[in-house]
Amino acid sequence: MSAAAGTRWARVRAFVAAPWSANPRTGIIMIVASALITIAVAFCGPSSVALKLGPRIDYLPPWYLPVGTIELGEWVAVPALWIGLMLGAIGLWICWRAVNVGWRPNNRRLFLLGSGLSVLTCLVPPLTSADVLMYAAYGRLQALGLNPYNITPAEIFRSEFDQVLVWTERPWQDTPSVYGPLASASQWLAAWLGNGNMHDTVFWLQMLALLPFLLIGAVIVLLAHDDHKIQTRAVLFTVLNPIMIWSVLAAAHNEAFTLVFAIVGLWFMRRSPFVAGLCIGLAGTVKVSLVFYGIAMAWGYRRDWRKLLQLSLGAAVPLAIAYGVWVPSALLAAQRNTGYVSAGSWAPWLQVPLAFVVGDWATRGFIGWLGWIMMAAVAWMLSRVLPWRLVPGNPEDDEPRRDPLTVAVRTAAILTASWLVTSPYTLSWYDLTTWVPLGLMAASRLDVLMIWRGLWLSVAYVTGRSVEFSPTMKSISGFIRDALCSGAQVLVLVWIVHWWWTWGRELPPLPRWLRRRMPVAVTRTG
User: Fold this and answer.
1) Helix boundaries (H) for 144-290
2) Is 45 left (phi over 0), alpha (psi -120 to 50) or beta?
């Protein structure tokens, strides 16, 4: 590095380490501003980023100004959301630094602030993702007595008019449901409460995102017990996390409904392994991706076969009922997601040139397997570098490696983070599965990597709806999504490898049978 470059780098480091970067007041103001920008854009009503929900028949939320009062163009709405997301991510980073240097706020007030911002976000129309309209469509199909795992919304609204299905948007109109039986039940409930009206159905789906989101935050704070610092982290990473408020609540995704059962299961790990198993089994009936939490809980109980057996039996009960008796066709539904590559992930940089050589089908298969191999490698690296810290409240043993809950929390963070950063199909609202256990752990570089990752994915999908944007906006958003965001995800992988390399680059131990066949010098180094 040249002297000039070294000087510039020193100035950057000095700027980042300046007092402003650990000022909690500045951080909180930026987080609040981020949420208020989102709320304001949505409250202005349908636009290129705010969903059209059809006619209102009562006074239920989501509320917005009468159509035509304020019409936000794409060059106002999209940049405003980009700015809001950057403010929120920087604010979260500032608060994270403030906690690390000694900030100890009133956590009750902090939780109430986050809850208030979360509630307000769910009282205005959803933004930038039409997934919630598909949830409503799957619920409507069930209300009509149809099977959403076999029939798509498009099959109905293309042959006859339906006052709910007609408001769905591309690209998933021709896709059957990929969600578990309990998720489908929640969609049916929202459709039943909505009574044949898309606007009201969306409101109830927003509540099914909001209430679990708040419950997750409350449970994690309770798991922090009287540890003030961990309580603050728990609040910041859940209900006051601007990236998650945006990703999960502003678009009414069902990620919180998926995760809430697993988090309640963590609450029961020191109390009843069987009940913890019931909870993780219920989580599996919403989305199969929660298998990572099941593995984490099993790993926590691995030294006690009785508790491990109770956990397994508890998990088997809801899974057997849901997939064996209730909706057997849902068992294979999640397989429809395989083979997808999302824009903004690490994969497009490899997919484009490789598909030119071997074809698209072979490329998708190769990328899928490569993702799983990379996940195993990243999981090992994170397991070597993430700090151990006892989850508060264990009166029996202060050794974190022997506490099942601590092991489960740390393992869940490792497995989900590894899956998120290596999966070819990854979206910002999936990150809730990692943010929650991180709230109970000691500060680490993974916190910052999740902020970085979530910011870029969120910015990339501000223009995620399948609506017509101007050619210039398409070009700019395409560059952000396909070049900058994908590059940011590759950089996350590079940082994790560098982190592991500089912390000792410990390799997995060789199997015993292989060590016996290796030369002595090799086995000593391995």
Assistant:
1) 153-157, 181-194, 198-223, 228-237, 242-244, 255-267, 273-284
2) left
Please tell me the distance from the alpha carbon of residue 194 to that of residue 214, in angstroms, as a whole number.
22
What is the rounded distance in angstroms from the CA atom of residue 238 to the CA atom of residue 262? 15
Q: How far apart are CA 37 and CA 43, in angstroms?
A: 10
Place of tokens 């109109």: 173
pLDDT digits (tens, 9 = 90+) for 447-487: 999 999 999 999 999 998 888 899 999 999 999 999 999 99
Look at the chain and count its residues. Answer: 526
Alpha helices (runs of H) in 101-152, residue ranges in sequence order: 107-121, 131-143
Distances in Å between the alpha carbon of 242 and those of 62, 93, 114, 453?
20, 11, 9, 13
Closest CA to 193 of 183, 208, 178: 208
pLDDT digits (tens, 9 = 90+) for 185-213: 999 999 999 999 999 999 999 999 999 99
Q: What is the pTM of this model?
A: 0.94
Q: Going along 280-410, which residue ranges are E strands? A: none
Which H or E run contains 415?
helix 404-422
Select from 319, 424, 310, 318 the least CA-distant residue to 373: 424
Q: How far is CA 220 from CA 236, 242, 389, in A?
A: 11, 17, 15
CA distance 126 to 62: 8
